[in-house]
Amino acid sequence: QVQVVESGGGLVQPGGSLRLSCAASGSIASIRTMGWYRQAPGKQREWLASITPGGSTNYADSVKGRFTLSKDGAANTVFLQMNSLKPEDTAVYLCFLYNTRTYWGQGTQVTVSS
Q: What is the rounded radius of gyration, in angstroms, for the C-alpha atoms of the chain?
């Protein structure tokens, strides 16, 4: 099986920054898509960003220009750099890995508040 573990969440003031990390382990194929979703209370899970097997990144309009997805080439780890955070960014942030199916992390809480 595949394990996906997020870290880096926490409390940050509006306008601040956080960097989330996602580490995957187990029987992982070399070609795979990884990325991030978030889920705020009472709302549906929202796709944020993905990186394809070819290395191309895509972003949701809601975070384009503020969030950056990157990958550690030497390890099965991806990062989400979040800048200019807003209170509406408050959510549980979930990492995913997809090849033959989707694997989810358990999430890391991001709270943007003064």
A: 13
